[in-house]
User: Fold this.
Amino acid sequence: MTAATGKVTLEVDGRPVEVSGGASLLDAVAAAGVELPALCSDSRLSPVGSCRTCLVRADARLVAACVTPATAGTRVSTADVDLADLRRDAVRTIVSAVPPSALGPRVPSELARVCRDLGIGPDEARGAGGRGRDDSHPYVRLDRDLCIACGRCVRMCADVQGTFALTLTERGADTVVAPGTGGPWVESDCVSCGGCVDTCPTGAITQPGTGSGLTSAELSRQAPASPTATTVVRTTCGFCGVGCALDVAVKGGAVSAVLPARDGPVNQGHACVKGRFAYGFATSPERLTTPLLRRGDGQLEPVDWDTAAAYVAQRLTTAIAEGGPDSVAAISSARATNEENYLFQKFMRTAVGTNNVDNCSRLCHAPSAAGLVASFGLSGGTDSFDSLVDADCLLVVGANPVEAHPVVGARLMQHALRGARLVVADPREVGLARYADVHLRPRPGTNVALFHGLAHVMLAENLVDHRFLRERASGLTELAELVASYTPEHVAGVTGVAAADLVAAARLYGRSERPAIVYGLGVTEHLHGTDGVRTLANLAVLRGAVGTDNGYGVNPLRGQNNVQGASDMGALPDLLPGYAKVADPAARSRAAAVWGVSVPARPGLRIPDMFSGARAGILRALWILGEDVCSTDPDTGSVERALNACPFVVCSELFLSPTARRADVVLPAASWLEKDGTFVNLDRRFQRVRPAITPPGQARTDFAALHVVAAAMGHDLGCPTPAAALAECADVAPLFAGLSHGRLDREGAVAWPCPDPAGPGTPKLYEERFATPDGLAHLAAAPYLPPGETPDDAYPLVLVTGRRWTHYNSGSMTRRSGNLGLAPADLLDLHPDDAARYAIRQGEPVAVVSRHGRARLTARITSEVAPGQVFCAFHFPASGVNRLTSGHTDPTTSCPEYKVTAVRVGACEQEPIRTDRP
Assistant:
């Protein structure tokens, strides 16, 4: 291997071949254009060499190519007649145990293809069958007769997903895959990632429906011109913010399967239950297919687009005339594309004439934007996700990626299992906590004290980078003075974290050579969420782990598919595209020069202010794009009162959500499977979104809907296509000047900042200087302040809300898919001690009451939560979870305090639980 290139040169069948260091002979053979069977091999897995179907001769030695490293100068032979016979005999031995149906002419499996290539027919498959099936799971079907015990499914579940849900049982010829818990598959620990389905070479494990037997490897091999070929569309997942690249298989205009892209820049051939299987919502009979207009009798009735657009235009124009442009507001969407978000904020600022536009990042990661900008200068995470798996210590705070971001969670877990030190800080025993070296369980609302305690130990034990602090940071003196009083013992009293655990965690992070911080909504969704982000960032600055080779910074796990992009595109009341300040005359002039219209100078309303304005009679019109605010925003009752008070509400949606039911006009929207554009993922990568199917009925993309309404108002928004919108955004925002659809089509993914079309993106930020005015990282000396709510005798428990792995956000998409069969109701997690104290039994209905409202959930008794704390998700609006949460918000960003609500619980009367609607 040459040290300069890290490449190895060897010879395959007389031809020189160059491969990367660490490659196998199977990789080298493939690079030479030679195809060998390899039924136990998958490029996503470590090789085992058990099937012996890839035999080659290496320097006269007979070896299995998949497990033999490629070394310089090796001479590999594949074409010798005896080798071909040996490989064929190995396949014949395997085939002899399966029934003839496994090798049918239309069977799409890897084994069937290999046999066709080798001339092995169904007559050589002599398996007797009769081992039975398991069809209990909505997404996974097991035919035991087709199992060849290759173990790929077991290794995929263990080595990629990290769930360890599968095993091989029995012995010899009777060996077969089975759930590790015994019993039906649906009752196992399986999290439905689909990895076993995608790797199975025989069709023993498949998904049901028209996509049965399709795998990412075999789909990539099909001849495009074949009359039986499946259309494949590469797109980006529309659920969480990971940004998984997916290949959508389409037959007859319908989705047959959604498969993880093997070359996906983030997911690398992996997916989760939502992106992989939860596409049934796209064909739900409840999809909105025509515009709806509320008539005089109060009923929503179908109308055509011309009527709907003319009515929206007339009502918006009237509102502007009577109350001025600032009497109109808009809530843009993290589910919409960048181009749609860009066009919506442009519509508000040019056609309406106001900065009253915001997006749902206000409810989740607005403190990330404010905190990261204050500390470092830009609102995104500091490093790429790829780099995190090079860290030698992971500090994961206020996040449960195993459930909320499963692909990220799986990779972080695998990294910890390979030896990286892991510190988890979360009140609950989240998935990663089971593998942590130290698990810190602070009381909800005490993050700032916890982070100051860690900083105290790092400073006291000299676990800081003095040169970095001298040359690249400011505020050390003030921080040191503040944290001097945050001794481990004092912090233990505030947070409940044992002093010894705090010290151990600080030492692990402070002594590591390349640490990384990953955090989630457990940091941001607090009364003092911005302080939480800033004081967490302090730790990376103290360690010199930002913008250097000494670590991988501070990285938020964005919740929704395009919550980063919605803000990037300027769907914010005080910021233009690319985070230029509305108050900056130069920024307004640059936008005006492109748009041909002056930009209002006064920052607009945030989402909570919009609702307050509606209740006060000031706001006259509100357009809500793809957000179900009646289900996801805090204090549902006050949101409902705001929508009821607002004279005119437009809602663009897939379904008639609780929010849409209160609208005066409902516009049927296209889903992410039906859109063209881009998303920005959690580590700032722009990636393409492409339409795989057409929207149902008269449903339109939000991009098209904005154009038709603007035209009805007499305004031309320009940007006739999504590609043109991103190009125009590049003219407005220097941060994105190097981005275009064409470039993304060629390169796959590009991280911003990307100011030059000819230059690279920037996966790692701040390598030369920080983006603050003085070029320095700013340490924050923010004192700990208590949360907005505390428990008392009337409300003795603290409720924390979050997500579970089966559903996404308010569940409007996942509840209209097979996921409903996996999780049919919202659950309330409570500790066994609390269950006994309040006479709550497992699985029974439980009433949850706060100072703001009440909800009805199903009890789940578990030690994953601490005594005195309860946890639930908000995936079923009918449960009323967000009727419990308060109106307390972070004073810097107006982000709600979802993570601390005082409640009481009690058993309630048995009633049917609504699991399907709204």
